[in-house]
Write a structure and sequence with these properties.
5-stranded parallel sheet; 7 helices; about 45% helix; about 20% strand
Length: about 140
C-alpha cells in the first residue's frame, strides 16, 4: 500500500514557524505519511546552519512572545534537531532544499548537501507536489 505524500513548504525562519513545520512533519511521518519538507529562504539557512532553536519568534506572536516561547520550551524541551533525528530513521521524512534558494541565501552547496536529503529545482519540486495528498505552506 502506497503511503500518502505530504509536502510542507517552509519559508519563514522564526522559531514559531520552524517549530510548527518540524512538529507537523515529524508527527505526520511518525503516523506513516511520506513527508517532504521543502526549505526556502530563512528556513533553509537556519536548517543548514543548525540555528532553528534560536529564540526568535515572529511578530505574529504579539507582545507575549517571550512567555509563549518559555511555555513551548517547557512543554517540549527537545530541540527541533532532536525531534527530526528521532523520526528520521523511519525513512519517510525528507528535507529538500530549493536549488535557487541555496544561491539566493549565499549558502555553500556542499554544506547544504550534508544537511538535506536532496537539492532540487522548483520545477521538479512542483511536479512532485502534484502527487501529494496534502500540501502546507508555513
Amino acid at each position: 500500500m502506497a503511503k500518502d505524500k505530504f509536502f510542507i513548504i517552509s519559508h519563514g525562519g522564526s522559531y514559531d514557524r520552524l517549530y510548527q513545520t518540524v512538529t507537523i512533519a515529524v508527527t505526520s511521518a511518525a503516523l506513516g505519511d511520506e513527508v517532504y519538507v521543502v526549505l526556502f529562504f530563512d528556513a533553509l539557512r537556519k536548517f543548514v546552519k543548525g540555528t532553528m532553536d534560536e529564540k526568535e519568534l515572529s511578530n505574529d506572536m504579539g507582545p507575549e512572545k517571550d512567555e509563549v516561547y518559555g511555555r513551548m520550551k517547557k512543554m517540549n524541551p527537545m530541540s527541533m534537531e532532536d525531534m527530526i533525528n528521532t523520526v528520521k530513521p523511519l525513512g519517510n521524512l525528507k528535507f529538500v532544499a530549493c536549488s535557487a534558494n541555496v544561491e539566493f541565501m549565499g549558502l555553500n552547496k556542499e554544506e547544504v548537501s550534508k544537511k538535506v536529503d536532496e537539492i532540487m529545482g522548483l520545477p521538479t519540486i512542483l511536479k512532485m507536489m502534484k502527487e501529494a495528498k496534502n500540501q502546507l505552506y508555513i
